[in-house]
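In this supplementary section we document a worked example of the pipeline. Step one takes a protein sequence of length 382 as its only input; no multiple sequence alignment statistics are reported here. Step two produces a three-dimensional model, which step three serialises into structure tokens for compact storage. The input and output of this example are shown verbatim.
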Amino acid sequence: MTERIKSDKKKVWPGLQTALEREEVLLAPYAMYSRDSAGRKYQEQEHPYRGPFQRDRDRVIHSAAYRRLSDKTQVFTGEMGDYHRTRLTHTMEVASIARTIGRALRLNEDLIEALALLHDIGHPPFGHAGEDALDECLADFGGFSHNQYALCLVEELEERYHQFPGLNLSQEVLDGQESRVDKTKVGTGRLLEAQVVDVADSVTYDSHDTDDAVQLGLVPLDALMETSLVREAERRVTDRCGQLSGDLLRKSVVHELIDWQVSEVLAASGTSLDRRSFTSAREASASDYRIGPGPELAEQKAELEAFLYEQVYHHPELVRVRRVAQKQLRQMFVGYGHRPELLPSRFYARIGQTGQERSVGDYLAGMTDRYCQQQYQRFFSG
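The serialised model returned by step three reads:
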């Protein structure tokens, strides 16, 4: 059973404004209020000046899994340079854009930030290539999903508190992550704050994958201008700033891609929200209303994403690197299966609870790119 949040107005120091009081002033009726939270699985004393969702955000930031994102692949591996995004910098950009959207729509920024910082915490080493390899290895044991693994991390594997396993996050944060596991549930009963994170994720990777691909020389900006979204962004930049070139043009186009998409989402969503006049977060999430871009921008984004899929994500150099990484992960999965005594003690102990294959998969999924390569060279490269 979860413990509901109590609306405690008691002052700890004179003049101190509680999180609940701040929400009453700042949030729209359709936002998720802390007072309405379903609470946590394990009861905890309420904090005097930090709201529950702020505490969730802080717990994610201070987790070991979050720190490991700094050395996990987003799209491009470390051997390709040091400019492009890692899984951590991607996550930070998503959180920043999500907060911008949420603030403008008067949603709960603390909840949005907690959801954004959590959304990719379960990614294994080497990005989606690593996920595909682990999913293949665990095909007969339930498969592997980075979204599901994120829940395993925050509910079981993280060890930061003596009172309970995991991070004991609020139910709304867990529900938001759970909705990412089963895509058939997307749009069904989801809080607006969770919808904002999905929108921000899309805005972020469309923009920064464009940026990284051009900067790394995988595709020229001229080729990306074959897509209407990038072409229009370049036109807007030129109209405002005149003729630019090189890195300055690339950076200006990427900035315009982000600003334009966010502005379009807010224009489409704000008007509709005002018209709907929702009186609670639950009413809004139970409706057919969805935060997102209008039809024209959605079509342009789909065109850009198709281009990135064909010309960037399947670039021969990326395919080569991914194949090497996937081969290593498969060998390590088999190797640890033959020699489970090589597992750290906590994962060896989990074999009786989850089974050997799942325990090995959980251990591999938690590795950074660098640590994975080190362990491969240490035990399995001979």
